[in-house]
Amino acid sequence: MKVILTEKITKLGNIGDTVEVKTGFARNYLLPNKKAMRWTAENVALFEAQKAEIIARHEKAKKDAESYVDAVKNAKFYMIRQAGDTGQLYGSVSSRDIARTLKEVANVAIESSQVLLGSPIKTIGVFDTKIALHADVIVPVKIYVAQTQEEIDALVAGKKLTFGTKKVEEAEEVKEEEKPAEVAEEKAADAE
């Protein structure tokens, strides 16, 4: 389906671009959210008549988003979650959790789709992601995920957390050392 964009959409186009999109994407997302108009001769003329107003609205939204950049940069994204001995979370940290934390910490309301996380966070550690306050205003942030506040403080200080993996590695080394001794004992018993 051919549409005229009334908003800048990442990876699709800018305001006023005529693009070809799948029918379902246009019907279910672009048209109901007023991000595009169907391409017809009447709509092209209508868009040209309203172009200055649409661009002014876009610039105002961009300035509003820019006013929140410092609040988002200064927000502390500390997520305390339950995890196993290896650092694997029981559950995950999703873009919805990050959006909720931003609302609580910095009083900036965003949709979870504005958090450019990719896939949910499923382990303890520090993760880089971005928050798109506007199509032209994208703010990089760090997400700290740990089991306790002390672990978060260590992550913020730049320290790496160690989990039960050292204990597992030590146990494996001991088993490997025990095996040759057991084999030697078995050989001695067989020789007798």
Number of strands: 9
The major beta sheet can be summarized as: 4 strands, mixed
Q: Number of helical segments?
A: 6
Low-pLDDT stretches are 165-181, 186-190
User: What is the H/E string?
Assistant: EEHEHHEEHEEEEHH
Q: What class do helices, strands and sheet pairing give?
A: alpha+beta
Radius of gyration: 27 Å
| Alpha-carbon distance between the two ends | 86 Å
CATH architecture group name of the largest domain: Roll
Kindly report the name of the CATH homologous superfamily of the largest domain.
Ribosomal protein L9, C-terminal domain
Structural description of this entry:
The protein is of the alpha+beta class and 192 residues long. It is 45% helix and 23% strand. The protein is built from 6 helices and 9 strands; from the N terminus they run ββαβααββαββββαα. A 4-stranded mixed beta sheet has the order 4-9-8-6, sandwiched between helices. The protein has a 3-stranded antiparallel beta sheet with strand order 2-1-3, with helices on one face. Strands 5-7 form a two-stranded antiparallel sheet. The chain is elongated, with a radius of gyration of 27 Å.
